[in-house]
Write a structure and sequence with these properties.
Length: 422
């Protein structure tokens, strides 16, 4: 991640935008100015975001989003398969500064309803729309918007509990605006939003009840295979013995090779076998990627957004490692971040899972909520996921981390997650 001074002027939070199939179709990035009386440089902020969501350079092509990119069947370019970003800018001045900077067609911008209905911002909104940015209106306007203003918005973001139905249809020739519901905190709330007609949901299923024991016989075969591999790597079993375990599930072998050869891994040579991976990485570094493979083996209705979170938690904690040269410490922090959602991913209590998956003591303490060196980092990433600026600042200060360091780690994790997902 390049050094961007603007990252010291903001606090960042993020959450997934999920479609009906529970695919993560976009990342919502919430930006809080560090001081209420200051307006961070919007152009500099866009330059920082370019490292994660490139507009037209490097390996990425420009995102050619359809006018309504979340609609089922919308036609997008190949590169748009990877989730775009929706900017939620806290503060009118920062949003106005961003509109003037012209974020471009690869960015979605959220606009509060009161600004959409304000004559003061009409020209800036038109300029933003004409520049190709996909615009989302947040909340319900106090009075009906003019048809030409409403036509600039592709979607409406509505908080949970608000009625998204209107008594009168839109005027002839004016299309309706689809709904994205914000504030979902459980699987039931996510499902209810889709039943009411929402086209997407912003939020995480973190308020679901804790999982109950399933019994060993109910663990999926691919999960059992990865657990055996992790145990074998922990014991430093021979390559033939480990390969014999992996051969039970060719799909797992393919997924592991895909991870190891992703840009996020950064190897200069292509890994073509498990033995080659072990030769290049060693047992400890390979265990890190088996942890990711275990997390991505999750099934179930809401698995995709939880996998999305687990991958980014691992990358975030690794990026904040106090000693970047200590590969063992970095690996432990990565595993801790990924495994912090293992109970939800595999639908078993973490205490049961830790009986089958060997982890270092510090990781075990954090996963059990018993303290240790890594738990404060997990609490920080939870605050970032909930976009709670006060908790983000409190957790960062407790770890003696600057806002710039935390925000660099956030963007590193978001960029690395995209690279892993290809």
């Amino acid at each position: 991640m390049r050094d961007h001074p603007v990252l010291g002027q903001v606090a960042l939070g993020y959450s997934p935008m999920i479609d009906r199939q529970r695919n993560v179709v976009a990342t919502r990035l919430t930006v809080f100015p560090d001081r209420p009386d200051a307006t961070p440089d919007a152009a500099a902020l866009l330059a920082a975001l370019e490292d994660v969501w490139p507009s037209a350079n490097g390996a990425d092509e420009p995102l050619k989003l359809a006018p309504r990119p979340l609609d089922p069947g919308a036609v997008v370019s190949r590169s748009a398969v990877r989730p775009p970003v929706s900017l939620n800018l806290a503060g009118e001045q920062l949003l106005r500064s961003m509109m003037a900077a012209g974020p471009g067609a690869h960015v979605m911008v959220e606009v509060p309803a009161f600004m959409a209905g304000s004559g003061e911002d009409a020209a800036a909104l038109r300029q933003l729309h004409d520049g190709g940015a996909v615009m989302l209106i947040k909340g319900r306007p106090l009075s009906p918007l003019a048809p030409e203003v409403l036509a600039m918005f592709s979607h409406s973001i509505v908080e949970a509990g608000e009625d998204r139905r209107t008594a009168t249809p839109p005027p002839p020739g004016v299309r309706s605006v689809t709904t994205v519901q914000a504030g979902a905190r459980s699987s039931a709330e996510i499902e209810a939003a889709f039943e009411r007609g929402a086209i997407a949901v912003l939020g995480w299923p973190w308020d679901d009840a804790p999982p109950k024991p399933l019994g060993r016989g109910n663990v999926p075969a691919d999960v059992t295979t990865v657990m055996e591999l992790i145990q074998g790597v922990d014991r430093e079993d021979s390559v033939p013995k480990l390969e014999a375990v992996l051969r039970r599930d060719p799909t797992l072998a393919f997924r592991l090779m895909r991870y190891l050869n992703s840009p996020a891994f950064g190897l200069s040579v292509e890994i073509n076998s498990f033995g080659h991976a072990l030769q290049m990485l060693g047992y400890q570094r390979l265990k890190r990627w088996l942890a990711l493979l275990l997390a991505s083996s999750a099934k179930g209705v809401n698995a995709k957004p939880v996998i999305f979170a687990a991958v980014r938690r691992g990358l975030f904690l690794e990026s904040l490692c106090p000693d970047p040269k200590d590969s063992q410490l970095r690996g432990e922090m990565f595993i801790c971040g990924v495994f912090s959602l293992l109970d939800r991913l595999l639908n078993q209590p973490i205490s049961d899972l830790l009986g089958s998956v060997p982890v270092p003591d510090g990781v075990r303490q954090a996963l059990m909520g018993e303290g240790g060196p890594y738990l404060p980092y997990v609490e920080l990433v939870r605050a970032i996921e909930l976009e709670s600026v006060f908790d983000i600042r409190e957790r960062s200060e407790a770890l003696m981390l600057s806002s710039a360091a935390v925000n660099r780690a956030v963007l590193d994790a978001l960029r690395g997650g995209r690279q892993l997902e290809g």
